[in-house]
Amino acid sequence: MDVFSYFNYWVVVVLMMLGFFIVIARGNLVKKLIGLNIFQTSVFILYISAGKVMGGAAPILADGVELYSNPLPHVLILTAIVVGIATTSVGLALVVRIHAAYGTVEEADILEQDATC
Amino acid sequence: MLCLLVATAIALIAVRGLLASIMLTSVYGLLSASFFVTMDAVDVAFTEAAVGAGVSPLLLLLTVAIVGRREAASNARRLVVPLLLVTVTGALLIIGTLDMPSFGSPDAPAQTHVAPRYLQQSGDEIGIPNVVTSVLASYRAYDTLGEVLVIFTAGVAVLLALAPAGQGGSARAEPPAPEHLAPHTILQVVSKLLIPFMLLFAFYVQFHGEYGPGGGFQAGVIFASGIILYGLLYGLPTVCRVIPPPVVEVLAAVGALIYGLTGVLSLLAGKNFLDYSALAADPVTGQHIGIIAIELGVGIAVAAVIITIYYAFAGRLHTRED
């Protein structure tokens, strides 16, 4: 077993934690969504890495090619990306509404306004 | 490639100010798309390049144009707990990865379950070379129908959240207001040359998705980004004259309906829901017809929903400026 066989998974963990850190440590709501985006992409990378077969080809059938990478994770992730942008835009729409209601998108200011009500 | 991705993510933490963050998000999307190519996931790379590097930064930019680009400095004391939490979770996850099968091994559980069947049988059963398209549109058509409906619902949710009061739930743009922005002549001329080819490419991706990388999801996003580019450079009123918002809203529903109707047709022909073999005398021809029909539905729905979302955000920006 060599160390590099886990390199992809470790990068996934690091990216996931960086995204997670942005989500919990930053107060700006737009920045939180960007962090969520990074988190989401790290999951995509995990799935695609799991589907890769060493020496395999892209899963488009051709003569003379015997070994293909796994098509199933590709299907899951390709739809997940488009669903991801659709849900992110719902989040952004909510941010816009929060801005209209509170005049700010900083979490601390919003909580402060809520407390004084 | 992966180190570059990590570097971009770290830069995203370090940088303050939303505009720079959005540019880094775009870079991050492009890098992950190139990574997917090296992992043989060409269809995924296509989608990520269009979404991660294109549409997603555009929507973020529109939001930032509405809410302002400033980001408050975070309190240094508040960073200790998140840092601790992230380190512990990350360490636990890394211990977890040690039980994973080593990267790229052909006999990992993921490679031996259902994938060999798709790779060996789909050529005869579905008759198209792109296995990703056969799995997406035929073997797992139920899942894809669900995902199209999620996208449609998200579009409806954005419309509801951003519709100006008293417009009956529709984020229609206001009647054309005079543009007070100076026109970017160079960008306009270049985009006029580029946009027709972008739209043409979207159609190529749509109808060639059975043979090469591509399909309804990618085509929809590429088509929508062409329209959004036009809207950004020529202003919302102009693009609303080309494609009126009510038409797009109806098209989003029509796309989802085409998908569902294809399923109902195969049901009426006596087979299972979304079993396209029933659509023609020859099962393989039936599969071809079914896949083309639902990919068309997916393409229309995705393009229409993303354009609708763009209209909703841009309309909001417009009414704020007045």
From TrEMBL, chain A:
Segments traversing the membrane: 6-25, 37-62, 74-96
Transmembrane listed as a keyword: yes
Cellular compartment(s): Cell membrane
Cross-referenced NCBIfam families: PRK07375.1-6 (NF005621), PRK07375.2-3 (NF005624)
Organism (species): Parahaliea mediterranea
Family listed: Belongs to the CPA3 antiporters (TC 2.A.63) subunit C family.
Protein name: Cation:proton antiporter subunit C
InterPro entries membership: CPA3_antiporter_subunitC (IPR050601), NUOK/Mnh_C1-like (IPR039428)
Lineage: superkingdom: Bacteria
A cellular component term, taken from the record's GO annotations: plasma membrane
Keyword set includes Transmembrane helix: yes
Membrane topology label: Multi-pass membrane protein
UniProt keyword list: Cell membrane, Membrane, Transmembrane, Transmembrane helix
Pfam families on file: Oxidored_q2
